[in-house]
Amino acid sequence: MSSSAVAASRHLSVSFISKRRMMKSNSLCDMSPRSRSIRWRRCLRGSFINKYSTIAHNGNMKKFLFVCLTIVFIVSALMYFIVMPIAQANGFPSEVRLSAEEYEQRATLPMHRFIGQEHVDVAAVDGTSHKYIDLKLFGLVKVKRVKVDVLPVTEVIVGGMPVGFTVKMDGVMVVENAPHYGLTKGDVIKRVNGAPVDSIAGFNVVLGMLSEGKQMLDVEFKRAGEMIITQVEYANRGTGSLGIWLKDETTGMGTLTYVNPVNNNFAALGHNVTDHETGVHVDVRSGDVYRTNVLGVGKSQGRRVGELRSTLRQGSSPKQGTVTSSNNGGVFGCLFADSEILQDASMMYPVASRYSVRPGTAKLRTTIDSGAPREYDIEILKTHYQAKRATKSMVIRVTDKELLEKTGGIVHGMSGSPIIQNGKVVGALTHVIVGDTTKGYGIYIDFVIP
């Protein structure tokens, strides 16, 4: 090829390259801001990869990985050894209930392994002593001080026998729907025009004091645990009645949990009193306790829950004591000194708090016939941590063959039956699981003891 032809070829090549570069430059300028941003990110990503590829070739990547792993290890160690223990200690309740025996034996709370526990007695000016448990990280640094409320009883007369109640409500209950007044079955009227109402007689007295003729009444009532105020149009014709069905007392049956040997105070049932007509929990004002006759057992089968068939026992002195209150831990009151129930109950057991209950074998003390209470084998399947009183503290299963044969598991009327583990009363039966009547729930005994 001649020199002129070579020069021409070079000129064309240079011109082509220059034009191509100009086109790229112009295309970059013509790009939208988003496209330019994407182009720059790709360039930066490429430079980052190239940079660390160079580091890897130089042997520095090992140092980088070592630093990263060291940081991860340090953070994980801080979380496990310091952050998690401190968080658990700070989240623990500020007050716990223990039996006197548990505190004296330095019982430990369920706490992280790196949180030490120190029992402290602090003397007050009035001569009393306050008990605490200090939670300390590694047993050295105090994280939290927990107050200990020692249970007022160390031993109780264990129950297991069926008892009956007649209780007066705190208010008057609507027995049937009254839509023209805005009231439904199960509503409990507490006040009328600001005046408290605790019985049907008191309710009628309040209405009787109103002037004759039509007027609006402010009626305050309780529905599903909530207080509601509504206005009711009332035409007073001197009858002292709204013309709706009301009740101010109900009856129930359950099982005695324990009796305090010092003052004959008792607990039974293991849960709120429920009105059998409306299914509503009842606020108890007062009441009486009776013995019962067990006539037989309706056996639980499938999803159908059986029941203890019993009646209130009549006699020369049928009343065995008084009912003073009720909450979701049971029914409470006091037995008379000459009570037949008290004479039949003689076995003493120590009590243990929720912190002593463990999954495993236990006993359920109850009565299923006309004889005396007996202890039947059960298994505590699961215990729940509960900071405040609740009924479903533990899950139990009946394992006793005789009890399963006679009752099919747990039946209505057993509620309140004491649960005994390691020779101590640790709880009371509260509910049956409908899907499997061999299983049920229990409440910790320190939730039951006032």
SSE arrangement:
Blueprint: H1 3-30, H2 33-57, H3 61-91, E1 95-98, H4 100-104, E2 115-123, E3 129-137, E4 141-150, E5 155-158, E6 162-174, E7 188-192, E8 195-196, H5 200-208, E9 213-223, E10 226-236, E11 246-259, E12 265-268, E13 284-298, E14 307-312, E15 319-327, E16 330-335, H6 340-344, E17 348-350, E18 360-366, E19 374-383, E20 394-398, H7 401-407, E21 418-421, E22 424-432, E23 439-444, H8 445-448
Task: Give the CATH class of the domain at 250-450.
Answer: Mainly Beta
Over the alpha carbons, how many angstroms does the gyration radius reach?
37 Å
Q: Considering DSSP H and I runs of 4 or more, what fraction of the residues is helical?
A: 25-40%
CATH architecture of the domain at 250-450: Beta Barrel
- Major sheet summary line: 6 strands, antiparallel, barrel
Enter the CATH topology name of the domain at 250-450.
Answer: Thrombin, subunit H
- Class based on secondary structure composition and strand pairing: alpha+beta
